[in-house]
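User: My collaborator and I are trying to settle a disagreement about how two of our proteins should look. Neither of us wants to argue from intuition anymore, so we agreed to look at predicted structures for both before our next call. Could you fold the first one, then the second, and keep them clearly separated?

Assistant: That sounds like a sensible way to settle it. I'll keep them separate. The first protein:
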Amino acid sequence: MSGPARTAGGLADRIRALFPGGAVTEETWRGLEDALIRADVGPAAAADVVARVRADYRPAMDPADLVVEEVAATFAGDPPWEAPWGPDGRPGIVMVVGVNGTGKTTTIGKIASRLRTQGRSVGMAASDTFRAAAGEQLGVWADRTGATLVSQERGADPGAVAFDAVTSAEARGMDVLIVDTAGRLHTRTPLMEELKKVRRVIEKAAGRPPDDVLLVVDATTGQNGIRQAESFTEAVDVSGVVLTKLDGTARGGIVLAVRTELGIPVVLVGTGEGVDDLAPFDALAFARGLIF
């Protein structure tokens, strides 16, 4: 995964400067915690990483390398993400949520492309019926990837689109159905209630909840990302995070906070606009991109 390795750093040098000659003081650990918080990893995650670094550090060690190891260890045990298979040959259902501007629709297109190269048939539900041209944008990705699109006119009931998409995917014997949803501010209660309704409709149509609910998080979002993750998890039980826009100077430290505080794994990383610029999350590459 090349994207995280390209992200701008400088944090490694600041960490090393806290350990002159390998010596440590209480100020060293406070400084390390502050450096991590400034990298958007969040107070709880920063305290957790510092505690583990403190327990393992020896004067001969490179403290920056040790921090990398401990950041990567935060994600230990998270299995690689695979698009689900539904029971009894029915479609696996993936619901994709997030705030406006995170790259949700593009992420869906990239996931569809990955699945199509694996030989799996893919359906897309255009349940974002509010944003202008949202259905058209998803349709472009459907044409590009060979996926089947289910959509209605702008302003239609998002739940109705999701219901039709589930029944259509089952009738056609699709392998995976990906349900797009309208981007919404996590602070807007009526919009979050509507998102809950879409999930309920999927469950009614399929006879089970979505197999995966992926939250798309912009790597530049900072500490607001933890509030987003909390709100969306309360509403629709998020099962994984897709971190987008990790192709510039953003380091995406917020996902460390999401993993530490909410226990939600990071499953995929977007590193550009190209169809292939989506990769499985690599904890060590991410940790190096965060620190170096």
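The second protein, kept apart from the first:
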Amino acid sequence: MLADRSVRDLLSAFSSSDPTPGGGSASALASAIGASLLIMVTGLPKTRSGSDEDRQALAAARAALEGLRQTLVSAIDADTKAYDEVVAAYKLPKATAGEQTARKEAIQRALRAATDVPLGVVRASADALAHARSVEAHGNPNAASDVGVAVALLKAGAQGARLNVEINLGSVTDGGYADRVRTDLELFL
């Protein structure tokens, strides 16, 4: 599991000549770090004004962000798995008509999975960005740079995931599915 590796091991995995982990996993990681920074700010003892309203808003943001972070951490490995399945589908035999049909179907299934994972990263990143507004409004003002870094990481993760969605959609033959995904992308970015 990539998410269980040390930072050094993870960086080595990303820099290896293997195609996975790649940009999709990196996007999920960037967004997971962004969500983690926001969670950190929600837990600081000092808030914007020290009010109960601040504490309640930060507690609500924290609860939502913890779930989003878990989604993003899971996506780190899910993206790698999905892309590995695409590669495996392309390697299926294609000597007979039956094998060709089975291969095409397997490729399309794998491409949809490889699209759905980064689409989930886009969604989770967008949701975390929405909570960043509350964290910024109610959190410790001395942590403004932490919130800013979190927002930058979440935006980078969302944009990277979007690039993965778009590249995969180029090979998806189900036009209805592709149109729904494109519509989803417009809702979240």
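Some points you might bring to the call about the second protein. The CA atoms of residues 92 and 103 lie 6 Å apart. The two ends are 29 Å apart (CA to CA).
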